[in-house]
Design goal:
The chain has 71 residues and is mostly helical. The protein contains 5 helices and no strands. The longest helix has 14 residues. The protein is globular.
Length: 71
């Protein structure tokens, strides 16, 4: 369900934290999201993003841009 994925994305933005729990819900609801993450950041996990130094602002900006490009 897209609404639940949207809620999780909003939670990431408002909390300022990218958690595996949030990402898991989004990936479950929108399976193509994991591919978009891998293509964009080289990982599809919260831990991988943290190791790569990807913060919330960069995550949101690049994922939003990637989602627009796939429309």
């Amino acid at each position: 369900n897209f609404n639940e994925a949207g809620r999780q994305f909003s939670q990431i933005m408002s909390s300022g934290k990218i958690t595996e729990e949030n990402l898991g819900v989004i990936k479950e609801r929108l399976p193509a999201f994991a591919k978009l993450m891998r293509d964009t950041f080289g990982t599809s996990t919260a831990e991988g993003l943290k190791k790569a130094g990807v913060g919330v602002d960069e995550f949101v900006a690049k994922i939003s841009s990637g989602m627009q490009a796939t429309k």
